[in-house]
Amino acid sequence: MISFREPLTRKEFLKKLGLLGLGLGGLTVISNCSSERPAPSPDAEGLREARWYEQSPRQTVWCQLCFRECIIAEGKRGFCRARENRGGKLYTLVYGKPCAVQIDPIELEPMYHLLPGHGNLGLATAGCNFRCKFCHNWHISQRSVEETRNQDLSPQEIVAMAVERGCKSISSTMNEPTVFYEYMYDINKLAQETGLRTLFHTNGSLRPEPLLELLRFVDAVTVDLKAFTPQFYEQVSESELEPVLETLQNIKRAGKHLEIVNLVIPTLNDDLDDVRRMCVWIRENLGDQVPLHFTRFFPAYKLTSLPPTPVETLEAAVGIADEEGLQYVYIGNLPGHEHNSTFCPRCGERVIHRIHFEVVSSDVEDGKCRFCGHEIPGIWGDSEKAISDEEDEQT
Ligand code: SF4
């Protein structure tokens, strides 16, 4: 008999089945993944049924929200700790229960090409589907909903709060928002109807179908590309690189504004040959217009024995990205560095002067460099669409 003491990923599950010489009969599924399915309603306990899972007749469920595809036995939770199988149905435990709600400059995401300098309401819940040893938000991401201090806030209340405080956007961020997918989805839909911009900051591990459905109500995405080796993802984050690359391509294909963050950690992902391979991949698959942020590591969580990233390493990474033709490359977590700012790739003028997360001045007008008229990719007005850079990439 298969034990479900710990949540299994689909791969682990199939491996076990193979070892035991069983077929897949127990996973004859009732599909629960239709994109036409109505938004979940709370049950008698106030819990919402999850989306993107399938049920088996043996009360086991198969979550298909992220790359892990957890097989979860009755009464157990998925790897992310945020989804639980109750009586053969999968429930989200974090809908309407944010443990962090705060207003910051949009630059904090980081997101540099979306209404620079405006106030953004960011929210997070407990849980994550990665186990990054360097996580700065581990006190919420590596916790279950019972271990965090939560508020009860409906999507309507979140959107009303953002409007009341003068924010122009809402972002799902800090922990991995995939784990509060249903909540994020409802917030984003309502926020866009209200005229707010929506974004999320992700590790890029959503499966393609739920990602595409979510993107209907998303203006922009910040994706962590944590490294460019499968080994790093496996050993430092207990995850996989390949799904992240697929997500980046899908966001690009969907025409959403995309920015990439690479936290440079001494000795773990600072090999400059890997940095170059990453930059080449970005240029060839996503285009040279995608903003890339190299951010400085500071000791945190399980990586307190490593030093902060040397400034020279960050500058060397920027130099490589420049050589490979990427046009908007930044250094983050290093206040006052010139690469906090945006420079026009055509005339070289500084078009957005930033000091850390503060916008000192902007010379982007109607999405163009004020000095030479070059189009800068991004979202620059409340009602503008993202400027498509597809034509630029072709030339
Ligand atoms: S969202 Fe959670 S439960 Fe679903 S597959 Fe990912 S880690 Fe597993």
Annotate the secondary structure layout.
Elements: H1 10-20, E1 30-32, E2 48-49, E3 53-55, E4 61-63, E5 71-72, E6 83-86, E7 89-92, E8 100-105, E9 119-124, H2 138-141, H3 155-164, E10 169-172, H4 181-193, E11 197-202, H5 208-215, E12 220-224, H6 230-237, H7 242-253, E13 257-264, H8 272-286, E14 292-296, H9 311-323, E15 329-332, E16 342-343, E17 350-355, E18 358-362, E19 364-365, E20 368-369, H10 390-394
Parallel strand pairs: 9-10, 10-11, 11-12, 12-13, 13-14, 14-15
Antiparallel strand pairs: 1-3, 2-7, 3-4, 4-5, 6-7, 8-9, 16-17, 17-18, 19-20
Helix pairs in contact: 3-4, 5-7, 8-9
Provide mean pLDDT, rounded. 89
Strand order of the largest sheet: 8-9-10-11-12-13-14-15
- H-E string: HEEEEEEEEEHHEHEHEHHEHEHEEEEEEH
Number of helices: 10
User: How many DSSP E strands?
Assistant: 20
Fill in the CATH topology of the largest domain.
TIM Barrel
Key structural traits:
single chain; 395 residues; alpha/beta; TIM Barrel; 2 domains; four-stranded antiparallel beta sheet; 20 strands; binds iron/sulfur cluster
Tell me what you see in this structure:
44% of the residues are buried. Mean pLDDT is 89; it is low at 1-6, 16-31 and 383-395. The chain folds into two domains: 10-92, no CATH class; 100-339, Alpha-Beta Barrel (TIM Barrel). It is α/β, with parallel strands linked by helices. An eight-stranded mixed beta sheet has the order 8-9-10-11-12-13-14-15. It is 25% helix and 21% strand. The chain contains ten helices and 20 strands. It has helices spanning 10-20, 138-141, 155-164, 181-193, 208-215, 230-237, 242-253, 272-286, 311-323, 390-394; strands at 30-32, 48-49, 53-55, 61-63, 71-72, 83-86, 89-92, 100-105, 119-124, 169-172, 197-202, 220-224, 257-264, 292-296, 329-332, 342-343, 350-355, 358-362, 364-365, 368-369. Helix 3 (155-164) packs across helix 4 and helix 8 (272-286) runs parallel beside helix 9. The longest helix is centred in the C-terminal third of the chain and has 15 residues, at 272-286. Iron/sulfur cluster binds at residues 63, 65-66, 68-70, 78-80, 83, 129, 178-179.
